[in-house]
User: What shape does this take?
Amino acid sequence: MTDLQCDVAIIGAGTAGLAAQRSARKLGASTLLIDPEFRGTTCAATGCMPSKLLIAAGDAAHAVRDAGAFGIAANPEVDGRAVMRRLNKVRARFVQGVKDSISDLPEAVRITARARFDGPDRLLLDDGRSLAAKSVVIATGATPALPEPFRAVSDNILTNETIFDLEDLPRSVAVLGAGPIGVELAQALGRLGVEVAVFDIGDTLAGMQDSQVGETLRELLAEELPLHLNTEAEVAPADDGVRLTWDGQSRTFEKLLLAVGRPPNFDGLDLGNAGIALDDHGAPEFDRQTLRCGTSSIFIAGDANSDRPLLHEAAHEGHIAGRNAASCPDVAEFSRMVPFALTFTRPEAAEVGIIPDPDDASFVGASAPYDDQGKARVEHRLGGLCRLYARHADGKLTGASLCAPDAGHLAHIFALAIGRGLTATDLLNMPYYHPTLEEGLKSALRTLCKETGQDQPNTREDDAVRGL
Assistant: This one.
């Protein structure tokens, strides 16, 4: 006999788990939310928000240092302890906000425990109780990878889950991994006066798919940071930190920031007892539209499924999984949002929709450079490139790859346009205030109109002059 019963059991109280719980209860399902800590979401505790607090501090230092371009003499003095105190004070508010929302749930719904499968519809808790559920949602998130070669220097390793616990900024940091997390934190630390170098065995930054835009990002970041791409570094303990050796060079860093991936957190779940198919990595196979694992009553959402490890996707997936878990075996296929990834480097880098292969003739691409754009020049933020893509057959926008000042804001325009099936002509028919960064996109939009045979609106041409 089981100790607990419910319609939907959710394992993990992060963004996806909380969304799944809400959606399932809205449909009248009884739910149990299981988490060993209820420490708050990854976003609030160790992801989106603390990293942006560090980036904001780096921006402030950079703005002071760069003020000479405007005729304002200044020289910043960075107090690392003060930087980290503010970061953790504000982070605590974000985390507490999440905890407060969890506390609003009925106490009987929250179970502080670790769960593991004892069958497709049965969970065992580490407090000794068992639970029977009609459906289960796996929302256990992801954990920073710590490959075996780095365990020997683990005392000096930082991850996105530990760097924000520092009381002071380190003197030097080697960043291994040039994905979004690695390059964001590397640039922020560098702007705060930390000696930083970035290493990656690959040749791309921030996972950018468009090679031209990716190269632009590399050139701009290389002005601030040593970038060692296509490089495999060996690590070894040192008396005062970690010794890195690469390409005949060697140097000791105080800390090593490991940003080489965040694999799903399945430790202790005993997925082999769940009766679902697992892939070569031991992860559940699932349908992207329903988030259902095979034909079972088990669903997987958020970072745990490694599909789109982003907060807005985790929330959306939690909603899908919760609704389908409550309705199982009657499940629905949900339309997924337009793919949208954003890296908060300076300049920002973003990709929206489909970035086609350069040799695919069914798509047309056009470029908008930001190396002499009017508003960017006014703000002393020159540099960047945007590539826009449309279907050759009907001119509908399909993707955008952007490296430009405030690229995140620009990218939202294309997320909306692609989702609504708009064309370059449709976007050119909207007003563009002058001077704005958005104006810089018009040259690429006009090129797409021309290449796809669309009519170009009758707009003033003087705003297309470079630098105005």
